[in-house]
Amino acid sequence: MKSSExxxxxxxxxxxxxxxxxxSAIFQLEMVHIELDKLNEKxxxxxxxxxxxxxxxxxxxxxxxxxxxxxIPDFWSTVFTSHPGICHILYEDEExxxxxxxxLEVETADNIKSGYSIKLYFNENPYFxxxxxxxxxxxxxxxxxSISTKIEWKKPHPSTSSSKEGTSKSARKRSHSSQQxxxxxxxxxxxxxxxxxxxxxxxxxxxNSLHYYLVPDPDMxxxxxxxx
Amino acid sequence: MKSSExxxxxxxxxxxxxxxxxxSAIFQLEMVHIELDKLNEKxxxxxxxxxxxxxxxxxxxxxxxxxxxxxIPDFWSTVFTSHPGICHILYEDEExxxxxxxxLEVETADNIKSGYSIKLYFNENPYFxxxxxxxxxxxxxxxxxSISTKIEWKKPHPSTSSSKEGTSKSARKRSHSSQQxxxxxxxxxxxxxxxxxxxxxxxxxxxNSLHYYLVPDPDMxxxxxxxx
Lengths: 228, 228
Ligand SMILES: [Ca+2]
Ligand SMILES: [Ca+2]
Ligand SMILES: [Mg+2]
Ligand SMILES: [Mg+2]
What we know:
Two copies of one chain form a homodimer.
Chain A: H1 4-12, H2 15-69, H3 75-82, H4 94-98, E1 101-108, E2 116-122, E3 132-140, E4 143-148, H5 169-177, H6 182-187, H7 196-214
Antiparallel strand pairs in A: 1-2, 2-3, 3-4
Helix pairs in contact in A: 3-7
The structure holds calcium ion (2 copies) and magnesium ion (MG) (2 copies).
């Protein structure tokens, strides 16, 4: 780039020519940046392609895992009662209800920025009529939002009474800090962007279910925080 | 996985057989997890390969950019005095000194977790004898550390006097908050993991130098925070 003209410029050429040298250099820099931007875009595309390929390959093993888990009695109820971030929200008979949870699936969109869903498949049970409960997370105007299946209780269930729609913000906050329940969490779609339980299920339980199945139940270890 | 045996098990088979069914299922789950781990590792390897390929492709344009920039008088001094995170540490004649900065390069290791270096190439100048000043960042026992070229001043320079080796911790802290200087920053390797100036150069100036060259100098805009 250092032409003989440009090396003479600072002293000999008038400021108009000098400016046009600089303008031309700036134009060339802009062209370089366009090429760099293109490379970045191509790199992102190639990485996305790889991530999608491995997502498909993993799916085969996730399906196999789901099949194996269905042959293990009480697998998911054991996982949920063993998880330190979940066990404390299991209300009264929810632990028994979760013994009817036959299958759990977490589905992420190809682009995780498009959201994910948590699907809970239940056997016939004395608590509700639904076969499957789905909580779906999606972006709406840049904000993470959620919707969940309406649970059709066979008998009135206390666990959702404190987080029904229409409760005041302060009541909801109270329920979040100390009175949260599992199905209360499931039914509550007021604050999807800070849904810690959903994040635990997606990022930890879905990945590490076997670990939590195998760790000893905290209640069996003499940890008597909960009194029924 | 749901064999006829396993669907009969809960009622008919004794608990020892039941346990061995579960043990076998757990073993199969462990095998599935080994396959999932292998897939994750292969995915990471493929992504790293792509990142390295594009790093090489980008290098061609970075070299071209460096060449063009060398034809623009005062490019880097303009960039540094225009950057809101750098301009306030330019001490007295440092701005003039930086007019002799002909070339700036940021080199990252193939794996960014191995560190990076900032290289400042100077023309012959009245301030110091060095042609090139290098500040290198590397991981040492998991901790980001740095070393930098010893500057051979032609005359004693006030800018490094407040951050020389051997100053007390409190003196160094004072210098960081209000009396930091550009060459004081360069010479200071006491706190590499919180070296904000180095991060600005690596993540912003290196990427967006053209932008900062083109934005108007804050001093030219009637912004008279600094009084010389
Ligand atoms: Ca010129
Ligand atoms: Ca069995
Ligand atoms: Mg599964
Ligand atoms: Mg450059």
